[in-house]
Design brief:
There is one protein chain. The protein is of the alpha/beta class and 420 residues long. Helices cover 32% and strands 17% of the residues. The chain is elongated, with a radius of gyration of 31 Å.
């Protein structure tokens, strides 16, 4: 089942990318690959190589042709300070700058540092040093050329006049690169990366639309460009389910987290499932649904702490609601359901089983489109409730009144009348 869903998602991505081939100038080739556990379907994107790897000597000169005299030092002894570290590395040459990275809370050294030499000769000498020359307090330090952050590299590429750096056109042959979620390989080297930011905004929006809620929020923290793209993809969300990802929000999905998700632009959501993993949500979350999800058609709020006032707000906002489940909502009474049934005239499915406060008086406000009612376990349900159902709901085709202890023979006579 999982492989079929993965195939469908990647097939849709493939079709969307294919429509943009004139903009991207890519070569699309369907491909399959095997791993140790299962077979997966992928897409080969043939685009010029953007990032290249090299030796320490090659990395001393950056992409702009300037000499990089800054090195990264790892496994630095925690008791070594800045002055001691500068004195130790002065044997390779004059040190221009030294910075020891510390924890932002404890202010203690994290064991890493950055050094800048005044000459390239000193930098090369430090990089070629032996293990004995890099041992301080019985700890062997690691040195390497300090590179810019990936986000700075991507920003440099995006601000250039061409969508690809000039270096990527120097190769006569195209390289096939890898993007997360799309399987790519190369005839020479399949491990060479390509920034996904080189894709157009329309393509990124489509790709991000397939991510779940947790992954969308995570991608927003990558950079400002991705944050804008992910926010625009929230408008394409049609359904929200939190059953499999509530554990990712620390102690659970709270009202504040849920509100932040709705504020991202979930105006087109038609299906919302809060039945599993949302036990920390209160009636305030129900009210926020009524304010933000105006196109909602299906809501599963089983076991939530909904109240009569929150159902009133929900009904006034979500007037297109057709399917609702309020099973085991112990704080919901006649008044709240009365407001809900009055506002939501298009309701077709209602599930309020195991409600110990429901008597059936609110059924007088039900619309004629109701075809399913689940009332099992409603201990206080009376005959008048079924009488209202028989008068108002002519299209009713399914009724569950099991374990309703206060119903008499009159109720079952009404049921038999509907059947025959």
């Amino acid at each position: 089942m999982g492989s079929q869903m993965e195939y469908q998602i990647l097939s849709r991505i493939y079709c969307d990318l294919k429509r943009l081939h004139s903009v991207l100038q890519l070569t699309f080739i369907p491909a399959a690959y095997n791993n140790n556990t299962s077979n997966n379907i992928g897409i080969i994107l043939k685009i010029p190589l953007l990032l290249q790897t090299g030796t320490k000597e090659e990395k001393i000169t950056d992409t702009d042709g300037d000499t990089n005299k800054r090195i990264f030092v790892g496994n630095v002894p925690f008791r070594v300070g800045r002055k001691r570290l500068v004195k130790y590395f002065s044997k390779f040459g004059d040190v221009e700058n030294c910075e020891i990275i510390t924890d932002h809370l404890t202010k203690q050294s994290r064991g890493i540092a950055f050094l800048s030499f005044t000459s390239t000769k000193a930098t090369k000498k430090c990089l070629d040093a032996t293990d004995k020359e890099l041992t301080l307090f019985y700890r062997k330090m690691r040195v390497n050329v300090a590179e810019n952050k990936k986000r700075h590299q991507v920003k440099h590429q995006l601000t250039s006049s061409s969508p690809y750096p000039s270096s990527c056109y120097d190769n006569e042959t195209d390289e096939t690169v890898s993007v997360k979620g799309i399987i790519c390989s190369s005839d020479s080297d399949s491990d060479k990366p390509c920034p996904i930011d080189t894709l157009p905004t329309e393509c990124l929006t489509k790709i991000f639309s397939y991510l779940n809620v947790k992954d969308k929020i995570t991608q927003e923290s990558v950079c400002k460009h991705w944050q804008a793209v992910v926010k625009s993809s929230w408008n394409t969300v049609k359904s929200l389910q939190f059953a499999d990802i509530c554990h990712s929000f620390g102690s659970g999905l709270t009202d504040v987290t849920f509100m932040s998700i709705l504020m991202r632009g979930c105006h087109n959501v038609t299906w919302l499932d809060l039945s599993v993993g949302c036990n920390l949500l209160t009636d305030w979350a129900i009210e926020m649904i009524g304010h933000k999800c105006l196109k909602l058609e299906r809501l599963d709020a089983s076991r939530m702490r909904a109240t009569n006032s929150s159902l009133k707000v929900l009904g006034q906002g979500c007037k297109k609601l057709k399917w609702i489940c309020l099973a085991r909502c112990l704080d919901v009474g006649e008044k709240g359901l009365w407001w809900l049934f009055t506002s939501c005239t298009q309701l077709e499915y209602v599930d309020v089983h195991e409600n110990n406060r429901l008597t059936g008086q609110c059924f007088h406000q039900l619309g004629p489109s109701i075809h399913t009612m689940k009332l099992n376990g409603c201990n206080k349900l009376k005959n008048i409730g079924l009488q209202y159902l028989s008068e108002k709901c002519s299209l009713l085709s399914f009724l569950d009144i099991s374990d309703c202890l206060l119903l008499s023979d009159m109720a079952f006579n009404l049921v038999s009348f509907w059947i025959f």
